[in-house]
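Morning!

This is the sequence you dropped in the shared folder:
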Amino acid sequence: MKAPLTGIVPPMITPLRGRDELDVAGLERLIEHILTGGVAGLFILGTTGEGPSLSYRLRRELIQRVCQQVKRRVPVLVGITDTAFIESVAVARAAADFGADAVVLAPPYYLPEAQPELQEYLDHLVPELPLPLYIYNMPALTKVTIEADTLRRAMDNPRIIGLKDSSGDLDYFKNAAELIRRHRPDWPLLIGPEEKLLATLQLGGNGGVSGGANLFPKLYVQVVEAYRAGNLARAGELQQQIQRVSDSFYRVGRHASSIIKGIKCVLATKGICNDFMAEPFHRFRDTERELVATRLKEIETEMARFNL
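The structure's back. Tokens below.
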């Protein structure tokens, strides 16, 4: 990475046609749709991309196709989170071979590790990686928080180059921002939950890994641009639109998977890509899809008012 990555880096969904088959045409349309919004990078094989649910074969195919199409127009970040050390290394090596720019790692899930174990894990893993590493705090899904002492130790490693925080805890984010300011000011600090994008910019954050940027990338990019320009009124109005996106599409279903289902359903409704889900999940049923389509029309009318 030639410079710290700041701004909006969408966690791209993985368009699927079947259990182990990419929607290739949809993937190509989706990449161009996102890049047209002026984003700073692409993050694939994260939570929104259903990374842990995909076969290693499909992960490699996705990395290769994304890197070939992006052609270094923006940096490509690849998720390598896994329960098996060697598989994280293998995906990282494939990412380097195909031309990705960095990898992203959350703590191994299933059996939660203590902080000394997590520190040792990073000490052993980073020398094996051919690309620089962003660490990813996602305690809701990994059952482990990357605590302050572990963050501070990670800052001493020049090959660890930033933090994505998806905890949703603004106190955690504020403390991380202060640690970064004092010890690694070159580290970008990116927020996961988009509902807190503007609030975290005000706390010293550098941008967001926002799922809704799969849908309306310009909206998220312009929040950051308005804030940087000192136009807090416009930034606040745009943040309200982000909240509308969240309220309209992420809570249609009854389960936690509704966020990804909602994003995929909107993209399918817009004709961009298929909304097949990796098992054990399935796409929305007809009643839910009709609700999404109705809400999409309302949201698009609002977006036009903001020239988005």
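Headline: The first helix runs from residue 24 to 36.

More detail when I'm at my desk.
O.
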